[in-house]
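Let's practice the habit of predicting before peeking. Look at the sequence and jot down your guess about where helices and strands might fall. Then scroll down.
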Amino acid sequence: MVKTKDYIALFAAIAISESAGLIGSASSIQSIPIWYTTLTKPPLNPPGWVFGPVWTLLYAIMGIAAFMVWRKGTQHRAVKNALTVFGLQLVLNALWSVIFFGFRSPAAALIEIIALWIAIVWTIILFYKISRPAAWLLLPYILWVSFAVYLTAAVWYLN
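Done guessing? Here is the structure:
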């Protein structure tokens, strides 16, 4: 049975995940028209309008996955550890935009996004041990970040 506190927790999990996107947006909003548009982009670079909707959906899915793990009970060490690693990857997620757009450093962002990719894989492994559906929900996220690794590496190389 779903309780009111579950709805509140689900909303909070999604809001926390979406906040990483807000931090990233704040870092990138000024750099996109001034700096990013001047860079040479790789083949397969999607149009700019794609990123907002994709990330918004991914953050919501990430929040749902975290909620599914949270519901298993934070009194369990495995749940606490999984949510801690989830939080770490969320910080790394937000940090990528700060480094890439805010500091305008594709090289440093490439190193950082590799750390993010590792943290996501770690999160998926920990989530899988607690809730397989939660782990599967993160599959689109790791695929998109894998694509972002390609884009980041290509931007660094081409510029």
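How did you do? Residues 133 and 153 are 31 Å apart (CA to CA).
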